Amino acid sequence: APPGSDTYKGWLFKWTNYLKGYQRRWFVLSNGLLSYYRTQAEMAHTCRGTINLSTAHIDTEDSCNIVLSNGGRTYHLKANSEVERQRWVTALELAKAKAIRMRNNQSDDSGDEEPASQSDKSELHGPLKTLSSKLEDLSTCNDLIAKHGAALQRSLSELENLRLPAESGEKIKAVNERATLFRITSNAMINACRDFLDLAESHSRKWQRLLQHEREQRIRLEETIEQLAKQHNSLERACRGAPGLASATTSISSTAKGSVQSAKGEASDEDEETEYFDAMEDAPAFITVTADPKHHRRSGSNLSGASEGHPEDWNLEDSVFESSNQSSYNESTCKDLLPKKRRRTRIPDKPNYSLNLWSIMKNCIGKELSKIPMPVNFNEPLSMLQRLTEDLEYHELLDKAVKCESSTEQMCFVAAFSVSSYSTTVHRTAKPFNPLLGETYELDRLEELGFRSLCEQVSHHPPAAAHHVYSRRGWTLWQEITIASKFRGKYLSIMPLGAIHLEFHSSGNHYVWRKVTSTVHNIIVGKLWIDQSGEIEIVNHKSKDKCQLKFTPYSYFSRDVPRKVTGVVSDADGKAHYVMSGTWDEKMECSKILHSSHGSTSTEGKQKTVYQTLSPKVLWRKYPLPENAENMYFFSDLALTLNEPEERVAPTDSRLRPDQRLMESGRWDEANVEKQRLEEKQRAVRRRREAEAVEALEEGKDYEGYIPLWFERKVDAVTGELICVYKGGYWEAKEKQDWSVCPDIF
């Protein structure tokens, strides 16, 4: 389009930041607004920024650069050539002039519009009437000043022409009188101006707030309309792609490929960096349809497809699924009937200490980055080893899985257990204490709950923790987790590395899976919140059954429920048996598949699969948080007991860590001092090991470095990875109270 037209589009280079410099962006000039997008395709759904030209200042730095500034927002743009720059400048100037004319016309026409109500009318006319009276006062004072000023000027002229000394006294007296009148009038003028400015300033602030409110309402309305348009578009595509079945009740989103890629949104590299997850790009790849069991009993012989089943199996199974539907509270009530140790149900309330960033920064001046102590204000009074143990909060899912005769049924409970470990993270934005090298944590619930757990920090750089759990109810779990993190400005990505192994004693089924990525948003500004996103593939290495679980990342424009998790359980032949659905912070359900068929291909080219299922059954539901949890770091009932003092534990146990104990007691200043002491002690031990390694190297000897106390490194036969596994001896040492091998780390 020519520069004089209403709309002008084209490519320009926009300055983003010092790392990426100028980036190519698609700019659109329309109706006095200059908007830009990453690509032309983004014009349909995502605008990266807009500037209003009616109040903008247009400047040219050199032959190709353009600078647009409007209040606190400035765009530094660059064209390919001077000719292209001049075209854009001409278009911008014309658009600015037109926008100013439109704004003036709107302000002129606004007097013809009546307020919506009497209250609005009185609120508008009252200030206007007051301002009008003040303006009249200013006008009157102005006339008087002009009149008296002219008279004073005449008097002064006459005074200059005086020749007779006798007349000089009278003239001078008249000049003084007129000067006095002028001074009085000027003072009145100044006072009137001051009153006018004060009144205008107060009402200006009020009108500014009203205008800001209207702008926010308009933005909200635009976002709502955009969201409705996206939902309408998605519904149309889903309606065109779904085959004609009797009664579709639910639709869940997943992927039809064997290995599913993580749905990660690409973060914008602009100054207003925002993470977008576009819901339109991920159309449903399979649809579940809840069938009537009675109807399928009569017509079951007519079913055909990739996967079939009998509804009677769903009701006549070994009652494992039925027992999972019972309320978790009833189960916990039954446990309370057993004789067991009484655990604590609360901890001291979290102090309301304000965080002084300057006090942190001034203590960091002149220190190495690795020696900067982070205050406990960012922590919760639990270590990473204890947080790892929290994964066992819903261990009864594994107890129920032991009773399953079918490996695919067992897979459903294992999948629910893998999701349940994230339920405690939804409100837990504080970080746990980093364990010291050689630090351990035991959770002995063998008599009460049938299992005992042991964790040990086996490496410090990189930090790695080994975990082993034995249950007398028929299962063993072990893992070695290393945490990798990436700070991306507005959010922090936490990626647990390492596989989780679970083996059932009677069947020999060996399950392996890995954790998904956790993202902490609003690191710099705003309220912290956590999201889980990515894929979990659970594999039974004995039967080759698989479960693909997808954690859908949060999207403002998505029509799905937040924190959604979906998946399919299939056997070694790829035949789907169950559909998993739910949320990682509330519950997980399982639906038995009766029939599967291939639907039409979506607009993205993905093949949709339609699963006819029976009614879903709840496998796992989150326990409610204890009373006053918001003042106790949002700890669950299990988390409240993890740091409870116990006798006969190892001297390296996290319960004995002094800085963590002081923080739990609310003595944060003392905890910061103790935390710094422990970290410096650990650095001294590391420096001594490094010196020993250098000395051994000079002597031509091998240096093994740190050797874990209760774990040993072996190559895993299933995954082929080098992993720390429990070598035994801890519980025997506890029985004898022989802790001679434990180092002094506290």
Automatic annotation (TrEMBL):
Protein location: Membrane
Recorded GO MF terms: cholesterol binding
InterPro entries: OSBP_sf, Oxysterol-bd, Oxysterol-bd_CS, PH-like_dom_sf, PH_domain
Chain intervals with Low complexity compositional bias: 246-256
Coiled-coil portions: 211-238
Annotated spans, Disordered: 102-126, 246-274, 291-315
Gene Ontology CC, one term: cytosol
Signal peptide span: none
Protein name listed in UniProt: Oxysterol-binding protein
